[in-house]
Structures are given as structure tokens and as C-alpha cells.
Amino acid sequence: MSSTLKDVTYNRSEAVHDTGWWRQAVVYQIYPRSFADSNGDGIGDLRGIISRIPYLAALGVDAIWLSPFYPSALADGGYDVDDYRDVDAKLGTLDDFDDMAAILHAHGIKLIVDIVPNHTSNRHVWFQEALAAPAGSPARERYIFRDGTGPDGAQPPSDWHSSFGGPAWTRVADGQWYLHLFAPEQPDLNWDNPEVRADFIKTIRFWADRGADGFRVDVAHGLAKDLREPLPAWRTLDEELLLRGAHPFTDRDEVHDIYAEWRRVFDEYDPPRSSVAEAWVHPSRRSRYASATSLGQVFNFDLVELTWNPVSYRRVIVDSLADAAAAGSSNTWVLSNHDVVRHASRYGLLSEAASHEGRVVSRQWVQSGGTTPAYDSELGLRRARAASLLMLALPGSAYLYQGEELGLPEVPNIPDEHRQDPTFFRNSGVDKGRDGCRVPIPWTGDGPSFGFGTGTAHLPQPEWFAAHSVQAQEADPESTLLLYRRGLRWRRRLQTTEELPWLDAGSPSVLHFARKGGWQCITNFGPEPVPLPAGTVMISSAPLVDGALPSDTTAWILATAERSADSMR
Ligand code: GLC
Ligand code: CA
Fold first, then answer.
1. pTM, whole model, 2 decimals?
2. Is the beta carbon of 65 within 6 A of some atom in ligand 1?
3. Which of 155, 283, 322, 534 has the fewest CB atoms inside 10 Å of its own CB, making it the most exposed?
4. Residues 6 or more apart from 44 whose CB is under 8 A from it?
């Protein structure tokens, strides 16, 4: 090792007042209940996260995003919030939160919290009040209550479906119905009600004042609704409505008025608080959420949909960068999160599916218990490593999901009696749900829960988790964990402006692009090795073969001759 990365000092504190810190940040998503358990009750908690902050710092991430840690009965993994301004007692206290924020900041790591504004839980004090109050009362006006249709109003107000399966309306004791686009335990809020708006401003300030640097906004496309009667039939809710922003409950233009108000609050802070929208909307309308007067950044899930295919990858990269630039934002890259099958598994599925059906096929595989289509775990990991290194070289921010730095595969065959996800309970014949990517991650090769805690984990971990543990990977120079660590260090060192000129790769199965300052990234999607461009190889996702880039491999090249580099491989 000649010029070493060791002498690069990361002066992260410089970024304290950097208003654009989020533009090219690496954000690590923590699903708190499955990250680290400090007290052996089988549930991950804030003290557990605190104990792993040195790990996060060594990994080299810029920020963490915490999925909900609020009081919740876990009807939807914590996305059913009982109280937006507290910590679930099983996960810790507000003091623990303050400690966590302080220690993260001392390590130069920013903190993003998840805001769930579309729906509360059914245990939220407001919903309890609404149930106790009569039809037409102010308490019911915070939600969406309607009389039913048909004789005695025994039929729901419309035939709409909930996202987890089953009807989107549930009847209460006095005969009225309430709307829930997700589980019945997640009643939708009425965002036409000024009280609802004011309360979320209070929540945003609450966390921003406690040190949150940014917010991830759950179901950001859902808040604004047009529920004037007659409610349209489900079959009429088509893409044409979505494209016009005229759908009754998805991606209406007025939703941005809500975020403009939030933006004014974010901008009162120094640096301004950032936010990123989770908006499952038509790609042509996505960038509205990324505008500077709306949430500023939006998740782009296009890579999650794809199989391992160079043509589609290139198209998504080109289109996404153009869209983000047009909105004045930076793009977000996502390969995995708590809602989708882990990419180490998606890329191991031996299927002839169309290139945009990667996510769909992976759900079918989980539904089959991990048997159909056939699965090659080595191929999956090899491609996942190549994809991750490619993603990390792109301009914009990269969102990593806990465990992906271990190349952790999905657990596709959790026994039904252990499943927790409402998708499974409301839809078991069709979808087994998302628990397979939420299994607590392995820190050590043994122990009752592979170092997750001293007790048994709340979702069962398979024996094969041992080989993927942090402990095993720290001892292996070829491990995925060390690949991510090296990749993130190089990325920090090489980070540059957001342009991406494509280079001629000489083959449609090779993607090759440059970043300013001599950084190049080349990925070989094809079966045969290809020659590497001139320059020093800084890092590669698999060993080179006779100096060439083998199949399913990404390498980063430093093209300027005078800058020496570690040849890691
Ligand atoms: C988002 C979350 C998902 C949750 C849903 C309902 O899509 O990512 O986990 O189930 O919203 O809150
Ligand atoms: Ca615990």
C-alpha cells in the first residue's frame, strides 16, 4: 500500500453549516427494532444504536435515517405511530434520543428521522377521541369518517382497496366508516383540517430542536385528498388521473402547499433542515417533491425495479440525473430498503423477467418461500457488490439499508407463525410480506442472536447469518463490509461536482463514466472480461482477471497518472 487512505483526515465538522450537505451524502437507514438490542429483550433500541456508532463512523456514512422509533403497537412495523413526539418505551427514552443525537454529531454523522403524516395509529389519542365522539364532531374531522352506502349504510363509502390488501374503509361501532389507505390500524388524517397541519409543524420543530438534521417523509404523495362525493369507483382510478394530478388520494398538486409550509419551518434552522420524500408516483411527477419549495429531495426507486441489465441501468441513470437537475436537486440512489427484497437476493434470481420486473419477481420468490425462480446466492452477491460500487460512484446521494454493507441476503422462508408484516396477514395467499429484509442483523458468528443482543431476536435469524456477521467480515479483506468501507472512504476523498460524462465503453454491456478530478467508474454486465481504461484501479468489486475487468464487476479508476492510489486488489 503506497499512498494510504490513512493520512486523509476527514474533517466532517466543517460540514456543520453546510446547507447542501445532503446533496451527495451517504445515508444509512436503520430499522431500529432490528439493528442492535442493548437489554436482551430481543428488540433493537436506541442504546443499541448508540453502542454501534463507532461502527457507523468506521463505515464512513454521512448520516443515518431512523425508521420510526415512536410508541407503536407495531401493526405496521412502527409506521403506525401512537405519539409523534416520544420514544417507544421498548426502544428507550427521549434522553436516549438526545444522547444518540449528541454522540452521532460528535462523530460527524447527521441524523434523519422518519415523519409519518398520512396516518396515525388507531391508538393515537386523536383516534381514540374520534371513536368516542359522535359523527360530525370535531374529533372525527381530524380523520376521514363517512357514512356508508347501501341499506343501513352497511356498505363502505367506496370500493377502494387498501395498500396491504382488503378494503380501505373500516366500520366503527356507530355505523360510520373511516378511511385507511394502509392497515385498519392506520387511519388516514384529514389534511384539510388546520389542527392537523399545526400539529405536524409542532412535531417537526420538536425533533429539529432536539437535533434532527433532516426528515424522511413517509407516503409523501398521500396527504392531499379530494373526497368530494360521489367517490369514483376503484376501476376508474387510472394512470391518466395520476398524470394530471387528479387522482382522489395520490400525488395531488395541493400536497406541495403542505410541504411549502414545512419548508419555511426547515429554513428557520441553520443549516436548514433537509427532507426527502417517499413518493411512489409516476416518474414524470417525481421531481415536484424535489423542488426547493417542496421537500427538496425525493426517493428514486427506479433501480429497485430493475434486473441486472446495462441498458436499463443506463437509461435510469440518464433520466434520473436529468430529472433531479431540472428540479434543482440531486438524485437519490436506492438499491435496498425495509420495504423491498434485499438486492443481494434480487440479483441472484435466475429468471427471464423483463428488465423492469426485478422487484416483482423478487416478491414472487419470497411468496414461494425462496424456491421459485431458482436462486444463485454467489451470483447475487457478486452482482450486488458491482451494483453498490456503481451506485456509490454516481452523482447524488446514496441511501444504504442496514445489512447491505454485509451483502446480507433476504430471508425468504420465515415460518408463517413468526411473520409480523400486515401485508402477510391481509394478503397471505398473494404476498408473504417484508419481514425477510427486517431480520436483525448479525454482528458476531455465535451467541443467541449473533451479537444482535443477549436474547433471542424478535424475528428468527437463520444459521447461515453467522457467515455474514460483522465479526467474520472484519477479518476478511475480501468481504463486502470492507469493500463498502474502502468504497466510502474513496468516495469521500474523490467527491466532486455533480456532472457525469459518459465514456465510450466499446460494448453495450459495459457502462463507463467519469467524474471530475479523474474518477472513473466502469461496470461490466457482460459474460466476458473486458479491458480496463488507463489509470490506477482504486477498488474493484471482484478481483481482476489478468488485468481485465471480469463479468459482473465494477472498478473505480483514477485516471490522472500523478495521483497514486492504493491498489486494493
Ligand atoms: C411507507 C413505509 C412502509 C409503510 C408504509 C405505510 O411505504 O416505507 O414501511 O408500511 O409507508 O406507512
Ligand atoms: Ca431492547
1. 0.95
2. no
3. 534
4. 31, 32, 33, 34, 35, 36, 37, 91, 440, 452, 453
